[in-house]
Amino acid sequence: QQNNIIVLEDTIKRLRSIILETEKAQNKSPSRLDSFVKTLEADRDYYKSEAQNLRKMIRSRSKSPRRRSPSSRGTNCDVELLKTTRDREELKCMLEKYERHLAEIQGNVKVLTSERDKTFLLYEQAQEEIARLRREMMKNCKSPKSTTAHAILRRVETERDVAFTDLRRMTTERDSLRERLKIAQETAFNEKAHLEQRIEELECTVHNLDDERMEQMSNMTLMKETITTVEKEMKSLARKAMDTESELGRQKAENNSLRLLYENTEKDLSDTQRHLAKKKYELQLTQEKIMCLDEKIGEFFSH
């Protein structure tokens, strides 16, 4: 019976040592799980504000004017694509950080559950040991050592009750922290789902911007080809204009030459006409003289 009491005292000591270690840990670092919950809540608020800012930014981009010049539209499309890609990567980093927090919290929950199970196991062992000692004392209540054993048993029961009170207090604190942890975990899961949705929306936006950028590049290529074709046509027209101008100069030179030839011909014709008129006058005078001579000859032969 004395050995049983010693075993029971050892069990109570182990139970009290576990409770004291837990209390020391709480005094050194007031609720490590509580600090994790506060950190998670702060991160949740930060990510929520970032998601709201990102939502406002995307909404403002969707309301911005879409008609721009081809070059400015291509540049703005590239800038917007880079910004959206950077926002998507930041959201992915936030999501990974959330997942690490959740894994760490789940690990802490497992540790708390293990410590709780260990404490309850020791408490049940102590309860069984006390019940067994009580049964033995009821059998040996007339023995000389029963009074001492009964006093020891009462002391052990008192210590057990104190340990049980501390255990219930710790269990209450643990349940409160687990409830807060559950709420924070649900919030984290909701924020994770929201972030995943935002990432999908951003990836869709990136895809649309990439398509728009490719369309702008295709339009730029077509415009460059059109400009090249127009430049070739302008060069061809310039060469034709130069050839036409050269031909026009040659035609002008020929016209000037023909004009000079015409003027010379007109001058020669005028001179020839004057000379011909003079010759006609001389011929008329000669004919008149011949007629006079013929008349004189006729008169001469008539006498």
UniProtKB/TrEMBL annotation:
The keyword Cytoplasm applies. Keywords: Coiled coil, Cytoplasm, Cytoskeleton. Residues 56-76 are annotated as: Disordered. GO terms for cellular component: centriole. The keyword Coiled coil applies. Transmembrane segments: none annotated. This is Testis-specific gene 10 protein. It comes from Gulo gulo. The lineage of its organism: Eukaryota, Metazoa, Chordata, Craniata, Vertebrata.
